[in-house]
Amino acid sequence: RSNSLHLVVKGTNFGPDTKLIVGENLEVAANLLKDGTALGAKLRRALFDSAGDLSIQVKASSGAISEPAPLHILRPSDPMISEIRPQEVPGPASTFVLRISGEKFRDSSVISVGDRELDTEHRSPTELRAQVPSDLVISIGKLKVQITDMRLDDLKSNETELTVFGPRISELTPLADPVAGDGGFNLRIGGANFRSGATVEINGNEIPASRVRRNGSKALKVRVPSRLTEESGKLAVVVRNPEGNASEPGELELLAPTISSFDPGQVLAGLSKVKVAVLGSNFRKGARVYVAGEGPDSAKKVDRRQVRFRSQGRLVVTFNDDLNKLIAQKGVVKFQIVNPNRTDGVPGLDTDLKVVGPEVTEALIKPVKGDDSHVQLQITGANFRNNAVVEFFTDKDVYLRLRVPAKIRDDRIVIFCHSKKVDGLRSQSVRVVNPGDVKSNAVPLKDPSDTP
Asked: Of 115, 132, 136, 382, which sits 20 to 30 A from 451 (CA to CA)?
């Protein structure tokens, strides 16, 4: 206990000058209460320093002594912290009030911060308060907070932490797309505890104070110099307060050119003077375009006259001359955009444009209604071009080549033939050859009427 205890003993035959015997032989004066049926006495707090049973007896003025009755002294339950307010303060901080909520707080409970006991205000058994002096919150870090007891050294609460934090970055907002090689840009830094005189470091380079503007404790605006934006990748941004405390790095991505798709989405092999729109983001004027086939050392820089810059998300490339060789047969053409900078440029990733040829899914012999002397050869698939040729062949030799009508659908070819001519083709395989000798896969020629 932190205070003395007023004890009331109830019984019978109590008279004037009656005393209490506490423990083995401590006599304590008592006051007669309630018409002689109770005694009241003040017991000093030192009697309750340890748990156990304390013997209480009544001694009459005649010397007669009652039987002893035990007073149980219990060990108090450990206090419990449920919340501290504030949980964190910007450092170095000035003196502030710390409020602790919990349960089983005693009059002798004390708030300890960083192992220092503070002058504690007892608001209730569930709330304590104390002023935290500024010298405790000079250094950035975490301080242990605990409830201790002035009377019982081993009576302690659970531990929690008070955080003293330095500058913090919560968001990085470029005021324009941070495209690598595009020069400097303005950057807004949001966070907390930015103090007057704070500096900004980017990738370890301190930005001159003339390029940094503080807008209160939660915002900075900085002009990122062009020398730090030449290459794509991550920029590590750090805010450092005058006391030397630095934030954790915030990361900002310097963007390289990125290809997302093409228009058209694929190119027919064998064409020439094809215009391909390259779609994406972060394209800069003067960007170089490289194309390559599937073979080694096939990369070619596209002549600037064949590249049209439409916007940051669209370039148009015209295939002619040597570039036509890259789309002469089925495969892929790899595109790469390289933005200009003051050195070798900022390359984007390779992206494949598919070059497709004819594909046959089925070849059938169909009857011609009302004409038994002729049949239809019906070939279905995809990517058929005008002036294509249909070949009938065995393993090695081409048996017959039939020119396709001038205008066809890209997914269907129909040729009318004499029935006798087709009779010799029934054991052959069929493929379609587009102009430029671009061959399709081979499928067997089928006659549905042969199926039982």
From this structure: 382
